[in-house]
Amino acid sequence: xxxxxxxxxxxxxxxxxxxxxxxxxxxxxxxxxxxxxxxxxxxxxxxxxxxxxxxxxxxxxxxxxxxxxxxxxxxxxxxxxxxxxxxxxxxxxxxxxxxxxxxxxxxxxxxxxxxxxxxxxxxxxxxxxxxxxxxxxxxxxxxxxxxxxxxxxxxxxxxxxxxxxxxxxxxxxxxxxxxxxxxxxxxxxxxxxxxxxxxxxxxxxxxxxxxxxxxxxxxxxxxxxxxxxxxxxxxxxxxxxxxxxxxxxxxxxxxxxxxxxxxxxxxxxxxxxxxxxxxxxxxxxxxxxxxxxx
Amino acid sequence: xxxxxxxxxxxxxxxxxxxxxxxxxxxxxxxxxxxxxxxxxxxxxxxxxxxxxxxxxxxxxxxxxxxxxxxxxxxxxxxxxxxxxxxxxxxxxxxxxxxxxxxxxxxxxxxxxxxxxxxxxxxxxxxxxxxxxxxxxxxxxxxxxxxxxxxxxxxxxxxxxxxxxxxxxxxxxxxxxxxxxxxxxxxxxxxxxxxxxxxxxxxxxxxxxxxxxxxxxxxxxxxxxxxxxxxxxxxxxxxxxxxxxxxxxxxxxxxxxxxxxxxxxxxxxxxxxxxxxxxxxxxxxxxxxxxxxxxxxxxxxxxxxxxxxxxxxxxxxxxxxxxxxxxxxxxxxx
Amino acid sequence: xxxxxxxxxxxxxxxxxxxxxxxxxxxxxxxxxxxxxxxxxxxxxxxxxxxxxxxxxxxxxxxxxxxxxxxxxxxxxxxxxxxxxxxxxxxxxxxxxxxxxxxxxxxxxxxxxxxxxxxxxxxxxxxxxxxxxxxxxxxxxxxxxxxxxxxxxxxxxxxxxxxxxxxxxxxxxxxxxxxxxxxxxxxxxxxxxxxxxxxxxxxxxxxxxxxxxxxxxxxxxxxxxxxxxxxxxxxxxxxxxxxxxxxxxxxxxxxxxxxxxxxxxxxxxxxxxxxxxxxx
Lengths: 294, 334, 280
What we know:
The structure holds three protein chains of three kinds. By secondary structure, chain B is an alpha/beta fold. Chain B has helices at 52-59, 81-85, 104-113, 119-132, 148-160, 178-193, 207-213, 231-236, 253-259, 288-298, 313-321, 325-329, and strands at 4-15, 24-36, 41-45, 67-72, 75-76, 88-92, 166-170, 199-204, 216-221, 224-229, 242-248, 265-273, 276-283, 303-309. The two termini of chain B are 40 Å apart. Chain C has one domain. The longest helix of chain C is centred in the last third of the chain and has 33 residues, at 240-272. Chains B and C meet through strand 1, helix 1, helix 2, strand 6 and helix 3 of B and helix 1, helix 5 and helix 12 of C.
């Protein structure tokens, strides 16, 4: 062995990193490269602001314009961060559809010596990055125009970053589960990720507390990591108001983090199992190089 | 009256400025003069990017001419597109038409409705044509479940459904297997011959297809018509010259360039193979061979095989362009 | 082998009618052939409706607002249909190669657009009705219909204006935009906001509501709310009569607009070579 040769182990690790880096670059290019940066920025702002504005107006017509009230602040922050849920969930499945039906490259990805899930996760980074930008814009809009009381010095940054990292991992796991399902769908289900993401709003506690739902729907919400994650985000950004939200009031921050960690690990395992099974079915049915032609 | 007639037809595309290249124009058709008689099966032969598809688009009213005129059955493409559309149809190879969730029969029926054909007649004709192309057992299959070749057959049937007087086939056998391509060629030939009012203009980059099927062929490259005649006469234009296929033990590209200087050399191509190189040469006459053999000997190369053969349309193309069609498509240097 | 079956070809109004039926067919048959739509077009919008209902429940809104959400969710199906299956449609047709085949046929492109619109309207009405029925059943929405005839007229005029707009946008999308997907995506949420899918549009004030009325669903939904909910007239933007007049004007204007933009699109596309982009 010469001194410059890499061991197979190192090669495998480099390859995963390289795959992730390349697919993240690709995802970002596809997400942003269709127009010039200004139009892209406007495009990225309009949608989240409009969605937030629907909530603002709903609140306005019922409660009047007191946007500093805890129930509105919690709803606003929940809605802002829910954008990330939609993006992470949609990212993977959209990448699969885009590569399979539009660019028709999924088959080449599959025969390349890379780990496909790593590629798919990287591919979704573009939409996650845009979503992060949207979250930021929505929060800034809220802070400036609605006086949402986010005080920089009062933010619990440690809790915030821990929650963001764990939450993103959990959301990506959900994305892989949905993406795996997309692998076997014989349909041009472009809106699947987005619609299902929007559907999860019900079970997330993002814009209303779970306890107003009928019991069976509450159970679904409790079995998903989103509501714990959003509770932590609220407590990190607006500690007082966040704790006033009528969900998990008797659970400490530390315990909430542990719960989220548990859920994240569980969903990572579930995602791996679901991917393995559905990927097998997709290859058995010959779905990898399928074009729906609708 | 000609079925198709163009006079000094030109078409340019204006390419907008991008980050990578400045604004520029691309000449797709350059002073094209063409006359296709009624009842003729006419072929446009040229490499990919030669301008064949652009010409078809102009003639089918999808694209306006930038200069000159084009007429179909005496009607001007720019001024009388509606009248032309009543008389034509078009099939593009490699493209799918219709909707994946409709069956073959439903897709075809839908298109007949855009031509005002009553449903009963349309359904009878669909079944007849499907039988001819061997697709009748797939009439009720969703077109998304068809293979590429079968989808192309459906597309071809669509072109014949409406009884056009001028039919444009753009690479119709693209993607078809050998047997299916043969069936399509036979059907196309018969369709034209059974009614003298029918004209068919076909683009292809398959030499055999042009030679086998067409009454006349125009050779097109870089938007220009280089020659237009019957395949036989095009080949005969090289009859005073000799066409040779020669396999030699070794010859590289620079030596081949030197070979081109031999007096009497007209055109030629070289392809490197495992056991040496293959030359396709058009020489002024047989006497040039002496000089060629001397040249090869001086280069230390020996002849493995040499045979004189009849000229093909490929040779005609090489003699006109200086490169094989494949080399043009691959962007080989002049 | 000579073809045995002879075909005749109609022209004029019969060709127009045949084209409309021909192009509507895939959309109508699609609803029964591809049952995935039950999931994608009903179940998923239904989840979204439930979310908005519970937001109002959490805010302790009057029960009528639940009705607004159910109605708005049903009408969302039409807006999504206009964006994704009308405005973007010619663009998709270009991508798949069908557009060239439509243009070289002797039929009118207006007939093709009418076919797309009528097929889309039928398929979407099925979806909207299902969402409406389930929403009503689940959330016990009660309606007090003032006049069935007025309601019918509002619906018909709203759809005429809306699908006229869709037909017009289809040419514009194709002409000025190569990114139909992004444009449709961009237009989705702002219209959901300003057309008042979940609340009375008068909350925006007169001028903003008037500007939003360019989207026919704004006045259409406002008029429907006034005609079926007891508090509707109190929350209405304009009187139903005025809204009917504006919707009539919009219907005619968009239909003419569709006709002229289509002609413009065809002319420019042929000149610039945009109907099919490939060179050859």
